[in-house]
Queue: 2 jobs
Job 1
Amino acid sequence: MARFDPYENNGGTCVAVAGADYCVVAADTRLSVGYSILSRDHSKIAQLGSVLKFDVQQFRAEKCVLASSGFQGDIKALQKNLAAKELVYEHNHNKKMSCPAMAQLLSNTLYYKRFFPYYAFNVLGGLDSQGKGCVFTYDAVGSYERTGYSAQGTGAALMMPVLDNQLKSPSPLLLPARDAVTPLSESEAVDLVKDVFASATERDIYTGDRLEIVVINSSGTHRECIELRKD
Amino acid sequence: MQTSKQNWAECRLPSPLDRPSLKAHRRPNILAERKAQHEYWRRPSFFLLPQSNPASAGCCFNSNSDPRTKEKGKRRERVREREKRGKKQPRRSPLSHRLRTQIRMTGSMDLPAKGGFSYDLCRRNDFLEKKGLKVPGFLKTGTTIVGLVFQDGVVLGADTRATEGPIVADKNCEKIHFMAPNIYCCGAGTAADTEAVTDMVSSQLQLHRYATGRESRVVTALTLLKSHLFKYQGHVSAALVLGGVDVTGPHLHTVYPHGSTDTLPFATMGSGSLAAMSVFESQYKEGLTREEGIQLVSDAIRAGIFNDLGSGSNVDVCVITKGKTEYLRNHELPNPRTYVSSKGYSFTKGQTEVLSTKITKITQLKQKVEVAEGGDAMEE
């Protein structure tokens, strides 16, 4: 007797890398179910605030971008939920949400559904109040941590070791604790992210089609796409 | 009803060991005896007896110095004397045989009786499943394999991706296997099963060729495959597309893991079979030329490569005609790597943090043992 399974994994991988004054958030655009591809052009990156269908220019969180992989049904619901809560925050506090504030909000939203979780593996990227890049990585129920870089999704296990090696991140076992932000320049970080996705696409069947890269700077948010293997 | 511990112990079912043996009065401690006998033969020093006699070098058991041999010899003499006197040997009761087997089995290795499959763990798996252990599902085959018959013969095609769950294990593996110079076989399913079964049948076909002096026929390969797969009741997970040209003409067959076969003008198997079959069903016609056939097969495999996540990388094609076979390995490479970092990677010393170092010297060998050459008693 097959029970109804409320979850489904739509695959995909998300990565974020924090720099001294920038943040790179990237995700592939493949949506799959089982062994089939549902869409080659489905974005996993959301600029929070823009999912609501009215003029959101003035309501967007200040330079904060969420990339999620997992069950896209839950992810869409989560994005809507966050956008609504963000709007309420702006009405109450008369200012846009900073990235660390959004990080805490996301954690609370996820834990609120602790016993029927959002099947979403999130990576939040942006600039903090001092203008430095920040990346927050989450598990499905809201445990989060500020790190210098992170990968989540089906290809995460393939990417993390390469990122660990290349981003010269100090070991968390060293004392005193050192800053996790990478010393790489923005173009080098983007080059690394492209290469790491191309490598993960070779070996992970759920990653591929196209790569969407969002770079958050002091000058604004810039979006770029490159092609990946389509098999 | 009062069931104290004592009563419960008494209520247990009598085991066969409790039953009094008919000859128990003669050999009252038969169980202890047998156990001791078994333990003697299984003692650790058994294999480390010193080589006192150079004639028995290479043999770990020296029968001359072993005291047990003499006892066994005595028993044999007794049996021989009984036979001389004309008396029949006493019939061994099934009980004593079971006793002997029971004791012999204690401590011995759990090997399957003969070669082949041992299904002992199936009972354990059922038990674990009842206890609530989640059984890992069988992996769906990640492959697209196709075959079609054209005017001069048969064209086979396959993708080149081998998957282990969601990970690509081999980006460029060979799925078209050699059976005979005029017969090739594409395999989908568990890679080990397809390799083993096609190698086995290929060897059998060669022996058959030597015996008959004729070129192998496709139906021979088909019958050998299907009878093997049926014998294993689907546990050998090999789904094959078998094609070839022999004296009776071109043939194309599909073989399923349970042993059923189909004879078809065009066929597809594997997880990408639906994508490939959609191409075949829309574009196949009888009497295709060689170029059309190769193009259609490549199109079908490419459909599987791009639309099925279990298939990918390159297209392999094999064209078999009367008297000639062409194996076009990597006929098409539609998936080059999209991005290579121009900066490259350097792995200099010091990139990985060393937290602590401990150096342990490896001790030298104390003794070198030389094996002397001589007559080997075991070789006789």
Job 2
Amino acid sequence: MAAQDFNILLATDSYKITHYKQYPPNVSKVYSYFECRRKRGGTQFSEIVFFGLQYLLKKYLSGRVITEEKIQEAKVFYQMHFRQTVFDEEGWRKVLEKYDGRLPIRIKAVPEGKIIPRGNVLFTVENTDPDFFWLTNYIETMLVQMWYPISVATISREFKKILAKHLKATSGSLEGLDFKLHDFGYRGVSSQESAALGGAAHLVNFCSTDTVAGLLMAQRYYGCPMAGFSMPAAEHSTIISWGRSREKEAFESMLDQFPTGPVSVVSDSYDIFKACRHIWGDKLKERVIERSEDSCLIIRPDSGDPAETLIEVIKILEECFGCSLNSQGFKVLPSYLRIIQGDGIDLNSVDEILEKLSDEGWSAENVFFGCGSALLQKLNRDTLNCAFKCSYVEINGKGMDVYKQPVTDPSKGSKRGLLSLRRNSDDFIETVERGVGKPEEDMLVIVFENGSIVQEYTLEEIRKNARLLEDYMAPSQHNQDEPKSLEPHQKHIMNGVH
Amino acid sequence: MSILECFSSQSEISIQQRCGIINIQGSNHPFIIVINCICIISFQVTHYKQYPPNTTKVYSYFECRAKKTESTKIQKVKYDKTVFYGLQYILHKYLKGKVVTPQKITEAKEVYREHFQDDVFNEKGWEYILEKYDGHLPIEIKAVPEGSVIPRGNVLFTVESTDPECYWLTNWVETILVQIWYPITVATNSREQKKILARYLLETSGNQDKLEYKLHDFGYRGVSSQETAGIGASAHLVNFKGTDTVAGICVIKKYYGTKDPVPGFSVPAAEHSTITAWGKDHEKDAFEHIVRQFPNVPVSIVSDSYDIYNACEKIWGEDLRSLIESRSADAPLVIRPDSGDPLDTVLKVLEILGRKFCTTENSRGYKVLPPYIRVIQGDGVDINTLQEIVAGMKKHRWSIENVGFGSGGALLQKLTRDLLSCCFKCSFVVTNGLGLNVFKDPVADPNKRSKKGRLSLHRTPTGDFVTLEEGKGSLEENGPDLLHTVFRNGVILKTYTFDEVRDNAKIRDCDLEESVD
């Protein structure tokens, strides 16, 4: 049930208040869709993870979302905001009277967690009652915010691919992969709600997080009692509060307070290299060695060039603690000792760091990563070119395929007509336009209709859908950027390229 | 299987198997409501055990660090000063009043037990707060007035525990408080753009009329959540008055208040669907219909659905010309391009409209379109392209009176905590009854050094700002501390209206002194 105090009438771009007056006369249906457009010149992210719609449906769109109070509140508000009367009071009252405040809208969507190539329809929205043609694009603003959980889940999964590649190459297995990237992003996002949504999106791919809000979101909206884990860890204040000359005491206290289980200690408050060599590697060496594999010390650098700092730290630790060779011939620190790099991590630096480590003969097993803003904040709607466009209308009972096609930017062209999504005979996922798709082949599923959620997914199912393919590094199961082997007309159907 | 085994397990099992195996106690328990204060970043849950023994106070502060060394990225915009905004929202929404109940403590305990696979949650600490303070937070926050424009590298607010038992609380609230980076950054970036617009508007027209409507917020759909939309849009409205992000107005009304009924305005405008729904051959019919629907107010019509230049030349410039010419100066048609290179498109559109509708020369010798027609560029606008466009227009002798701008992602989303280096650090503790100035100073990055001791903010005799460290601010000769207590023990002690915020953040003549190219 959508939140009581949330007023959907105030949750749209202002100009949309005026759109009911702008559609052609006698329009009875407006049908729109959402995609992550392809950008010309190839794309960095060729496939996306679909995630987050269920949250929006449950929180904002389902059940009785219109009341007379909300209509009045909106009426008064828009009168002042536009400095004239333009709000469609009668239209909304009809929703109240005819549907008891439930939205006469149908949404069809790809199952959550599914991996879909760019340039394909991901969900469609249409009004189910001719009187409410204006409703489809009224909710665009809210639905387009899907760009965020989709983008976080996608970026997070791209991280996973990089980590998997290096882990497999340097250790022969993918063990521990799900804990390799820890969400550090809570403080660096723009709001609590974004933290929850972004945090949950990361948990589609990993299980380690410090963004507690994400856990609660996954629990409440995706049926997962506990989606992620963390460990006791220091922050600078808990080290520096001991005073500059007592860093060793601060470190030792960490080992005392958390004798079992992994513990992470930030070690760069003054000098990361001296801390590793003289404190961890000397004064507290015995205490470190006596920790078991289950209770490893995880040293955290937090400044300087990420790759260089890491290499120097690992070399110092090798000198002090030794190392062994794994089955692939790469060096691994003793099992009671690991490193977590949580500063300056993004897709490029993670790849670089692991590349350099491997060049120096070190296994990816030695390090964990923490990522903050690059995971949850350094993204925007242009990262995956997310857009919502009208593709079909009915006027005077007649259907018409509509689209935009700006001469100033062909990549902004939109799809035409009623859309469906299918796997073709070559096992490529493609969008079929102009209403010619076969219903039995359509991957889009009705998830919302007339105020009710009719299809739900658990985080468990979503994680299964989003898992890395065994042979992800082999030729893609998805559309190539330039499908050379296809006939021209096939290219035209796929991805709406015209 | 415990989390410890998860880390070290030899078997290759999937995420879902791992989490499924773990037996969650009370998994039929009703969903936990997102808890305000207990909902924090995981590792901070364990910090109460990490401070030195007999610590009775932790004192921390927030700043937008100055970059002392040259970064490798060349930034065109310096962001020397920041607008302080957004604390009041956080205090009202998350920190004031009774923030814990016995039920919340129990629920948090369960969540954290499963999350850490261990009992690390400070149940006793929270029960103490519940009993002694009826669930109100024993912390004190002192801050600069909202809307203040302060140079980088100065303390903006401080937080300290007021009860010796609750020393750990100061940094517990760090995660929530650090999110103030967002409204500060939006307001600051928005204000920098206002300075650019003000300079060029003044230079090309001789006045700053309608400056506050020159940058319209288009960002609602491009932010990461509804809550972010509200906060970000309100931050933009510190500097401007045009917005389509309704949520921002709701935040201002609820948490700040204005003397006017609303702090932000909009106008009727088309979107692509209301044009394309007419069909490709009926773009003119669409334009005409919409213009006629809104005769007495400005109306903005997106005109690039098929061909912006044809739309300007043929449809607006010929077919519908007389309809447009009959509109008053208060109700112009505002043509909206929405694709292509922003500067090139704006110049070409102006050129076409100039030909079709004629121009006059203003008192500064720049071209102005007739008052019934204007342009709004709402695609690809960020602080850098904004600068490019207004500079390009000036070069081609177009007054900035002709255009308005809309910005979405760049205004409200394309920002991070790193832009202004916002951070929260501990600077003073009391252990065994003795005060100690503490700080970090990583050898690999002098930019990350933090301030020491008790802090205060003062004005120098020359009118600059200075942060005094190590408690020096308490000496009388340094003048009054600009930080005011805004919150203590669960009570908000000082609030600012949005009008005060706007007043504090307004652009002054000295801000425009940088010469125009």
